[in-house]
């Protein structure tokens, strides 16, 4: 265990030709089995997987029947509201990205990194609060100053409110994702003031501790906080950082992959009951990858591909109180006709974590709509925040009781 400093429209399947789930699963199994003997050919494997589960290159993700749902609006049953956290014409920084959201006893708190552009040394972590009267004016609460002469950019903030204890704000500092390190600051007044940030520490298997790399942790019944994380300095690999004392000490589980079959980062953790967990990850292989744990996250299966595309962009997911699983993601691949890459942002739901059903389209237009974060608040509503053209952060509220898996009739 590493010691750290004490800190006070319908169902849509992404196939080149429609076919049954059983046939797709069989194909994937055969492919995975065959490729195990040549795992060193990771580029070939990624290409074959992408061809198996995603549209042909140059073909838009939604150009095949049946179509994805149209863009959600006031007439959409599950849609409650949407708003910008701050106006684009009066934004605090030129560029804003990688938002996160948490609920406190005093309302919602959102954070993101902002500055001249991603990776610029002036990028810091910004906060806005919503106590019921709209979002407050953003303020910068963390930066990457090392001295008066040296400042690094800040990256990927993650907010988390434990069952007991202060609001936690994790973020990264460093010149690049391969060299960054994790920081933690806390707030005892629901995000108004923040403690002196502290570096998380190091661990032999991964190098610098990062905390949750993009998506929120989960907290187990015994209070243990499990942070989904990943590194990029030895290939894209997934691991978990676990703390039982609100970040004072840490244990690392993994990495669970070697970046040969899948280059995966930025996992989200879903829970399925009886200690069963699942992660969903961003990959370079044109799909969302998944892995499973049967023992509360202590050990994990190998990563495998889902039927959902991914344009090498961040996703987030949440397990709802009624057991439904919700994923927010870009239902596109990187190189195709419009929409491609981060031009379209979507919501899919699943009962079992295996069969996923796209049910909402949040954005579909030129520009970047990406890096979502999603939570369920105490009133049952689902809150999503995401990057809007790198100009602002958009907040969308959904009623999950009206998110329905499409039937054969509605899929026509």
Give an overview of the whole structure.
- The protein is mainly beta and 412 residues long.
- It is 7% helix and 40% strand.
- It contains 2 helices and 27 strands.
- The chain has helices spanning 21-35, 42-53, and strands at residues 2-3, 79-84, 95-104, 107-115, 124-130, 139-142, 154-160, 167-173, 181-187, 198-199, 202-203, 207-208, 218-219, 225-231, 237-243, 249-253, 264-273, 276-283, 287-293, 304-309, 316-319, 325-329, 344-350, 357-364, 369-376, 382-388, 392-398.
- The strands form 7 sheets. The chain has a 5-stranded antiparallel β-sheet, with no helix packed on it. A 4-stranded antiparallel β-sheet has the order 2-27-26-25, with no helix packed on it.
- α1 runs antiparallel to α2.
- The chain is globular, with a radius of gyration of 20 Å.
- The model is unreliable at 1-47 and 49-58 (pLDDT under 50).
- Keywords: Membrane, Transmembrane, Transmembrane helix.
- It holds the Pfam family BNR_2.
- The chain crosses the membrane at residues 29-53.
Based on CA inertia axes, which overall geometry fits?
globular
Element string (H = helix, E = strand): EHHEEEEEEEEEEEEEEEEEEEEEEEEEE
Mean pLDDT: 87
Q: Residue share in helices?
A: under 10%
Main beta sheet, described? 5 strands, antiparallel
- Model regions low in confidence, pLDDT < 50 over at least 5 residues: 1-47, 49-58
* DSSP strand count: 27
Radius of gyration: 20 Å
- Helix/strand class: mainly beta
User: What is the CATH-assigned architecture?
Assistant: 6 Propeller
Instruction: Determine the strand fraction and express it as a percent band.
Output: 35-45%
Strand order of the largest sheet: 1-16-15-14-13
